[in-house]
Design a protein that fits this description.
12 helices; alpha+beta; Phosphoribosylformylglycinamidine cyclo-ligase; four-stranded mixed sheet
Protein backbone atom coordinates (compact mmCIF):
# COMPACT_ATOMS: atom_id res chain seq x y z
CA UNK A 1 0.00 0.00 0.00
CA UNK A 2 1.30 3.45 -0.91
CA UNK A 3 2.02 5.66 2.07
CA UNK A 4 0.16 8.91 1.37
CA UNK A 5 2.31 10.71 3.92
CA UNK A 6 5.36 10.15 1.69
CA UNK A 7 3.89 12.36 -1.06
CA UNK A 8 3.38 16.12 -1.20
CA UNK A 9 0.14 17.28 0.44
CA UNK A 10 -2.87 17.13 -1.88
CA UNK A 11 -4.99 20.22 -2.40
CA UNK A 12 -7.74 21.38 -4.75
CA UNK A 13 -5.07 23.35 -6.63
CA UNK A 14 -2.80 20.34 -7.14
CA UNK A 15 -5.88 18.50 -8.44
CA UNK A 16 -6.23 21.19 -11.10
CA UNK A 17 -8.67 23.74 -9.68
CA UNK A 18 -7.23 27.14 -8.76
CA UNK A 19 -9.65 29.06 -6.55
CA UNK A 20 -7.33 32.07 -6.35
CA UNK A 21 -7.24 32.32 -10.15
CA UNK A 22 -11.04 32.21 -10.17
CA UNK A 23 -11.19 35.06 -7.68
CA UNK A 24 -8.78 37.05 -9.83
CA UNK A 25 -10.99 36.44 -12.88
CA UNK A 26 -14.00 37.82 -10.97
CA UNK A 27 -12.06 40.95 -10.05
CA UNK A 28 -11.08 41.53 -13.68
CA UNK A 29 -14.60 41.08 -15.04
CA UNK A 30 -16.32 43.43 -12.59
CA UNK A 31 -15.83 46.55 -14.68
CA UNK A 32 -17.43 44.91 -17.70
CA UNK A 33 -20.40 43.58 -15.77
CA UNK A 34 -21.02 47.07 -14.34
CA UNK A 35 -21.45 48.37 -17.89
CA UNK A 36 -24.14 45.80 -18.69
CA UNK A 37 -26.83 46.85 -16.24
CA UNK A 38 -30.38 48.16 -16.35
CA UNK A 39 -32.17 50.28 -13.72
CA UNK A 40 -33.92 47.12 -12.50
CA UNK A 41 -30.62 45.33 -11.77
CA UNK A 42 -29.88 44.79 -8.09
CA UNK A 43 -26.79 43.70 -6.22
CA UNK A 44 -23.51 42.87 -7.90
CA UNK A 45 -21.05 40.08 -8.49
CA UNK A 46 -20.46 37.60 -5.73
CA UNK A 47 -24.00 36.66 -4.78
CA UNK A 48 -25.49 33.23 -5.20
CA UNK A 49 -28.15 34.54 -7.58
CA UNK A 50 -28.60 37.52 -9.86
CA UNK A 51 -31.40 39.89 -8.86
CA UNK A 52 -33.81 41.83 -11.07
CA UNK A 53 -36.58 44.10 -9.77
CA UNK A 54 -39.77 42.51 -11.08
CA UNK A 55 -41.89 45.46 -9.94
CA UNK A 56 -40.99 46.93 -13.34
CA UNK A 57 -43.50 44.47 -14.80
CA UNK A 58 -46.40 46.29 -13.12
CA UNK A 59 -46.77 48.50 -16.17
CA UNK A 60 -47.91 45.43 -18.13
CA UNK A 61 -51.56 44.36 -18.16
CA UNK A 62 -50.66 40.69 -18.64
CA UNK A 63 -46.90 40.18 -18.84
CA UNK A 64 -45.68 36.98 -20.47
CA UNK A 65 -42.14 35.92 -19.63
CA UNK A 66 -40.07 34.51 -22.48
CA UNK A 67 -36.88 32.53 -21.90
CA UNK A 68 -34.17 31.05 -24.10
CA UNK A 69 -30.82 29.35 -23.69
CA UNK A 70 -28.06 28.63 -26.18
CA UNK A 71 -24.33 28.42 -26.79
CA UNK A 72 -21.96 29.40 -29.57
CA UNK A 73 -21.10 25.96 -30.93
CA UNK A 74 -17.78 25.14 -32.55
CA UNK A 75 -17.06 28.78 -33.39
CA UNK A 76 -15.44 28.66 -29.96
CA UNK A 77 -12.73 26.42 -31.43
CA UNK A 78 -11.77 29.18 -33.87
CA UNK A 79 -11.51 31.71 -31.05
CA UNK A 80 -9.30 29.33 -29.08
CA UNK A 81 -6.97 28.68 -32.01
CA UNK A 82 -6.64 32.39 -32.72
CA UNK A 83 -6.25 33.39 -29.09
CA UNK A 84 -9.02 35.99 -29.52
CA UNK A 85 -11.58 35.72 -26.75
CA UNK A 86 -13.31 39.11 -26.51
CA UNK A 87 -15.82 38.67 -29.36
CA UNK A 88 -17.26 35.22 -28.69
CA UNK A 89 -19.42 36.70 -25.92
CA UNK A 90 -21.33 38.86 -28.40
CA UNK A 91 -22.09 35.70 -30.36
CA UNK A 92 -23.49 34.13 -27.21
CA UNK A 93 -25.75 37.07 -26.41
CA UNK A 94 -27.01 37.24 -29.99
CA UNK A 95 -27.92 33.58 -30.11
CA UNK A 96 -29.99 33.90 -26.94
CA UNK A 97 -31.67 37.32 -27.06
CA UNK A 98 -32.59 37.16 -30.74
CA UNK A 99 -34.54 33.97 -30.05
CA UNK A 100 -36.43 35.85 -27.34
CA UNK A 101 -37.28 38.89 -29.45
CA UNK A 102 -38.88 36.70 -32.13
CA UNK A 103 -42.10 36.57 -30.10
CA UNK A 104 -41.96 40.34 -29.56
CA UNK A 105 -40.44 40.10 -26.09
CA UNK A 106 -37.94 42.63 -24.74
CA UNK A 107 -34.86 40.85 -23.32
CA UNK A 108 -34.48 41.85 -19.67
CA UNK A 109 -31.54 39.96 -18.22
CA UNK A 110 -29.01 37.25 -19.04
CA UNK A 111 -26.83 34.86 -17.07
CA UNK A 112 -23.79 33.10 -18.50
CA UNK A 113 -21.91 29.86 -17.89
CA UNK A 114 -18.23 29.60 -18.79
CA UNK A 115 -16.60 26.18 -18.47
CA UNK A 116 -12.80 26.11 -18.76
CA UNK A 117 -10.08 23.51 -18.56
CA UNK A 118 -7.89 25.97 -16.66
CA UNK A 119 -8.81 29.38 -15.30
CA UNK A 120 -6.70 32.04 -16.95
CA UNK A 121 -8.11 35.22 -15.40
CA UNK A 122 -7.36 37.47 -18.36
CA UNK A 123 -8.98 35.03 -20.79
CA UNK A 124 -12.12 34.64 -18.69
CA UNK A 125 -12.33 38.41 -18.32
CA UNK A 126 -12.07 38.84 -22.09
CA UNK A 127 -14.95 36.41 -22.62
CA UNK A 128 -17.10 38.27 -20.09
CA UNK A 129 -16.16 41.58 -21.74
CA UNK A 130 -17.70 40.32 -24.97
CA UNK A 131 -20.81 39.10 -23.15
CA UNK A 132 -21.23 42.44 -21.38
CA UNK A 133 -20.78 44.40 -24.58
CA UNK A 134 -23.32 42.14 -26.26
CA UNK A 135 -25.80 42.79 -23.45
CA UNK A 136 -25.39 46.53 -23.96
CA UNK A 137 -26.15 46.10 -27.68
CA UNK A 138 -29.20 43.99 -26.79
CA UNK A 139 -30.50 46.34 -24.09
CA UNK A 140 -30.48 43.64 -21.41
CA UNK A 141 -28.65 43.30 -18.11
CA UNK A 142 -25.94 40.79 -17.27
CA UNK A 143 -27.05 39.84 -13.77
CA UNK A 144 -24.82 36.89 -13.00
CA UNK A 145 -23.07 33.80 -14.16
CA UNK A 146 -20.76 30.94 -13.33
CA UNK A 147 -17.18 30.12 -14.21
CA UNK A 148 -16.35 26.45 -13.70
CA UNK A 149 -12.90 24.89 -13.92
CA UNK A 150 -12.99 21.30 -15.22
CA UNK A 151 -9.45 19.89 -15.48
CA UNK A 152 -9.38 16.48 -17.12
CA UNK A 153 -12.63 17.16 -18.94
CA UNK A 154 -11.26 20.08 -20.97
CA UNK A 155 -7.67 20.84 -21.94
CA UNK A 156 -5.93 23.86 -20.37
CA UNK A 157 -6.67 26.04 -23.43
CA UNK A 158 -10.21 24.80 -23.98
CA UNK A 159 -13.48 26.36 -22.86
CA UNK A 160 -17.15 26.52 -23.75
CA UNK A 161 -19.80 29.14 -23.11
CA UNK A 162 -23.56 29.09 -22.69
CA UNK A 163 -26.17 31.57 -21.62
CA UNK A 164 -29.81 31.93 -20.65
CA UNK A 165 -31.98 35.03 -20.79
CA UNK A 166 -35.47 36.15 -19.81
CA UNK A 167 -37.66 38.70 -21.56
CA UNK A 168 -41.20 40.03 -21.32
CA UNK A 169 -43.99 40.79 -23.76
CA UNK A 170 -47.54 42.05 -23.25
CA UNK A 171 -49.90 39.14 -23.93
CA UNK A 172 -51.89 40.97 -26.59
CA UNK A 173 -48.62 41.97 -28.34
CA UNK A 174 -47.33 38.41 -28.67
CA UNK A 175 -46.07 37.75 -32.20
CA UNK A 176 -46.18 34.50 -34.10
CA UNK A 177 -47.75 32.34 -36.78
CA UNK A 178 -51.32 33.09 -35.75
CA UNK A 179 -50.90 36.74 -36.83
CA UNK A 180 -49.62 36.03 -40.36
CA UNK A 181 -52.05 36.62 -43.23
CA UNK A 182 -51.99 36.12 -47.01
CA UNK A 183 -50.46 39.19 -48.65
CA UNK A 184 -48.00 39.84 -45.84
CA UNK A 185 -44.50 40.85 -46.89
CA UNK A 186 -41.31 39.07 -45.82
CA UNK A 187 -38.44 41.43 -45.02
CA UNK A 188 -34.90 40.13 -44.82
CA UNK A 189 -32.27 41.72 -42.56
CA UNK A 190 -28.63 41.27 -43.54
CA UNK A 191 -26.38 39.10 -41.41
CA UNK A 192 -22.89 40.22 -40.42
CA UNK A 193 -21.50 36.99 -41.86
CA UNK A 194 -21.71 33.36 -40.81
CA UNK A 195 -22.99 34.32 -37.34
CA UNK A 196 -22.66 31.25 -35.07
CA UNK A 197 -24.06 28.33 -37.02
CA UNK A 198 -22.62 25.76 -39.37
CA UNK A 199 -19.06 26.02 -38.07
CA UNK A 200 -18.55 22.27 -38.08
CA UNK A 201 -19.08 22.41 -41.85
CA UNK A 202 -17.10 25.64 -42.31
CA UNK A 203 -14.13 24.43 -40.27
CA UNK A 204 -14.15 21.10 -42.14
CA UNK A 205 -14.11 22.89 -45.50
CA UNK A 206 -11.46 25.53 -44.84
CA UNK A 207 -9.22 24.06 -42.13
CA UNK A 208 -9.39 20.31 -42.75
CA UNK A 209 -10.26 19.77 -46.40
CA UNK A 210 -8.53 22.82 -47.95
CA UNK A 211 -5.83 23.08 -45.28
CA UNK A 212 -6.10 26.86 -45.07
CA UNK A 213 -4.42 28.59 -42.13
CA UNK A 214 -6.44 31.01 -40.04
CA UNK A 215 -3.92 33.77 -40.81
CA UNK A 216 -4.29 33.25 -44.57
CA UNK A 217 -5.22 36.47 -46.39
CA UNK A 218 -8.34 35.90 -48.47
CA UNK A 219 -8.74 38.68 -51.08
CA UNK A 220 -12.51 38.29 -51.47
CA UNK A 221 -12.91 38.66 -47.70
CA UNK A 222 -10.61 41.67 -47.51
CA UNK A 223 -9.02 40.16 -44.41
CA UNK A 224 -7.71 36.88 -43.05
CA UNK A 225 -9.75 33.70 -42.86
CA UNK A 226 -9.68 33.80 -39.07
CA UNK A 227 -10.92 37.38 -38.93
CA UNK A 228 -13.80 36.49 -41.23
CA UNK A 229 -14.74 33.44 -39.19
CA UNK A 230 -14.68 35.40 -35.93
CA UNK A 231 -16.89 38.24 -37.18
CA UNK A 232 -19.38 38.66 -34.30
CA UNK A 233 -23.02 37.73 -34.75
CA UNK A 234 -25.27 40.72 -35.30
CA UNK A 235 -27.69 41.44 -32.47
CA UNK A 236 -31.13 42.45 -33.77
CA UNK A 237 -33.20 42.69 -30.59
CA UNK A 238 -33.41 46.49 -30.33
CA UNK A 239 -34.00 46.79 -34.08
CA UNK A 240 -36.85 44.29 -33.92
CA UNK A 241 -38.38 46.02 -30.91
CA UNK A 242 -38.19 49.34 -32.77
CA UNK A 243 -40.15 47.73 -35.62
CA UNK A 244 -42.88 46.54 -33.26
CA UNK A 245 -43.30 50.11 -32.01
CA UNK A 246 -43.47 51.76 -35.44
CA UNK A 247 -45.04 49.22 -37.82
CA UNK A 248 -47.49 46.33 -37.94
CA UNK A 249 -45.22 43.33 -37.42
CA UNK A 250 -46.82 39.90 -37.43
CA UNK A 251 -43.82 37.64 -36.82
CA UNK A 252 -40.04 37.38 -36.75
CA UNK A 253 -37.76 34.45 -37.53
CA UNK A 254 -34.18 34.24 -36.24
CA UNK A 255 -32.11 32.55 -38.95
CA UNK A 256 -29.82 30.09 -37.20
CA UNK A 257 -29.16 26.36 -37.64
CA UNK A 258 -31.44 24.99 -40.34
CA UNK A 259 -31.05 28.01 -42.60
CA UNK A 260 -33.52 30.54 -43.94
CA UNK A 261 -36.26 28.16 -45.08
CA UNK A 262 -36.04 25.93 -42.03
CA UNK A 263 -36.36 28.79 -39.55
CA UNK A 264 -38.95 30.84 -41.41
CA UNK A 265 -41.07 27.68 -41.69
CA UNK A 266 -41.35 27.65 -37.89
CA UNK A 267 -43.61 30.74 -37.98
CA UNK A 268 -45.55 30.09 -41.20
CA UNK A 269 -49.04 28.65 -40.48
CA UNK A 270 -49.95 25.30 -42.02
CA UNK A 271 -52.40 26.88 -44.48
CA UNK A 272 -49.97 29.53 -45.78
CA UNK A 273 -46.76 29.60 -47.79
CA UNK A 274 -43.78 31.98 -48.03
CA UNK A 275 -42.09 32.54 -51.38
CA UNK A 276 -38.69 34.25 -51.29
CA UNK A 277 -36.75 35.56 -54.28
CA UNK A 278 -33.00 34.94 -54.02
CA UNK A 279 -32.40 37.72 -56.55
CA UNK A 280 -33.33 40.33 -53.91
CA UNK A 281 -30.02 39.92 -52.08
CA UNK A 282 -26.39 38.86 -52.53
CA UNK A 283 -24.90 36.60 -49.83
CA UNK A 284 -21.48 37.70 -48.60
CA UNK A 285 -18.33 36.25 -50.18
CA UNK A 286 -17.79 33.75 -47.37
CA UNK A 287 -20.89 31.78 -48.36
CA UNK A 288 -19.74 31.38 -51.94
CA UNK A 289 -16.27 30.44 -50.69
CA UNK A 290 -17.63 27.63 -48.51
CA UNK A 291 -19.47 26.19 -51.48
CA UNK A 292 -16.65 26.62 -53.98
CA UNK A 293 -13.75 25.44 -51.80
CA UNK A 294 -15.67 22.58 -50.23
CA UNK A 295 -17.73 21.48 -53.20
CA UNK A 296 -20.85 22.04 -51.10
CA UNK A 297 -24.13 22.17 -53.03
CA UNK A 298 -26.42 25.19 -52.80
CA UNK A 299 -29.09 23.03 -51.19
CA UNK A 300 -26.68 21.98 -48.45
CA UNK A 301 -25.44 25.55 -47.93
CA UNK A 302 -29.01 26.83 -47.60
CA UNK A 303 -29.88 24.08 -45.15
CA UNK A 304 -26.87 24.85 -42.95
CA UNK A 305 -25.94 28.55 -43.21
CA UNK A 306 -27.90 31.82 -43.03
CA UNK A 307 -26.81 32.82 -46.58
CA UNK A 308 -26.67 36.50 -45.67
CA UNK A 309 -30.00 36.79 -43.84
CA UNK A 310 -29.80 36.91 -40.06
CA UNK A 311 -33.36 37.88 -39.15
CA UNK A 312 -36.67 37.97 -41.00
CA UNK A 313 -39.73 40.10 -40.27
CA UNK A 314 -43.19 39.31 -41.60
CA UNK A 315 -45.20 42.54 -41.79
CA UNK A 316 -48.47 43.75 -43.21
CA UNK A 317 -48.01 44.77 -46.85
CA UNK A 318 -49.00 48.37 -46.15
CA UNK A 319 -46.36 48.53 -43.41
CA UNK A 320 -43.43 47.39 -45.56
CA UNK A 321 -42.14 50.85 -46.53
CA UNK A 322 -42.30 52.10 -42.95
CA UNK A 323 -40.50 48.98 -41.75
CA UNK A 324 -37.69 49.44 -44.27
CA UNK A 325 -37.36 53.10 -43.28
CA UNK A 326 -37.15 52.23 -39.58
CA UNK A 327 -34.46 49.63 -40.23
CA UNK A 328 -32.49 51.94 -42.53
CA UNK A 329 -32.57 54.67 -39.88
CA UNK A 330 -31.07 52.15 -37.46
CA UNK A 331 -28.31 51.15 -39.89
CA UNK A 332 -29.78 47.75 -40.75
CA UNK A 333 -29.53 46.67 -44.38
CA UNK A 334 -32.99 45.27 -45.15
CA UNK A 335 -35.15 44.54 -48.20
CA UNK A 336 -38.42 42.95 -49.28
CA UNK A 337 -37.45 39.33 -49.92
CA UNK A 338 -40.84 37.76 -50.59
CA UNK A 339 -44.47 37.40 -49.65
CA UNK A 340 -47.01 35.16 -47.95
CA UNK A 341 -49.70 33.40 -49.99
CA UNK A 342 -52.22 30.62 -49.49
CA UNK A 343 -50.68 27.16 -49.52
CA UNK A 344 -51.51 24.79 -52.36
CA UNK A 345 -53.66 21.83 -51.28
CA UNK A 346 -50.99 19.27 -52.22
CA UNK A 347 -48.09 21.13 -50.55
CA UNK A 348 -46.28 19.02 -48.02
CA UNK A 349 -46.93 15.74 -49.78
CA UNK A 350 -43.19 15.03 -49.77
CA UNK A 351 -43.06 15.20 -45.98
CA UNK A 352 -40.55 18.09 -46.02
CA UNK A 353 -42.10 20.65 -43.63
CA UNK A 354 -39.72 23.45 -44.61
CA UNK A 355 -40.34 22.92 -48.33
CA UNK A 356 -44.09 22.88 -47.74
CA UNK A 357 -43.94 26.22 -45.93
CA UNK A 358 -41.17 28.12 -47.76
CA UNK A 359 -39.94 28.23 -51.35
CA UNK A 360 -36.77 30.00 -52.51
CA UNK A 361 -36.85 30.95 -56.20
CA UNK A 362 -34.34 32.29 -58.72
CA UNK A 363 -30.62 32.85 -58.29
CA UNK A 364 -28.78 35.10 -55.85
CA UNK A 365 -27.87 38.58 -56.98
CA UNK A 366 -24.24 39.00 -58.03
Amino acid sequence: MTDAASHDPVSYKTAGVDIEAGDRAVDLMKEWVRKAQRPESLGGLGGFAGLFDASALRRYERPLLASATDGVGTKVAVAQRMGVHDTIGQDLVAMVVDDIVVCGAEPLFLTDYICVGKVVPERVSAIVKGIAEGCVLAGCALVGGETAEHPGLLGPEEYDVAGAATGVVEADRLLGAERIRPGDVVIGMASSGLHSNGYSLVRHVFLERAGWALDRDVPEFGRTLGEELLEPTRIYSLDCLALTRTTEVHAFAHITGGGLAGNLARVVPDHLHATLDRATWAPGPVFDAVGRVGGVTRAELEKTLNMGVGMVAVVAREAADAALTTLADRGVDAWVAGEITDRAPDAGSTGDAAAAAVTLTGDYAA
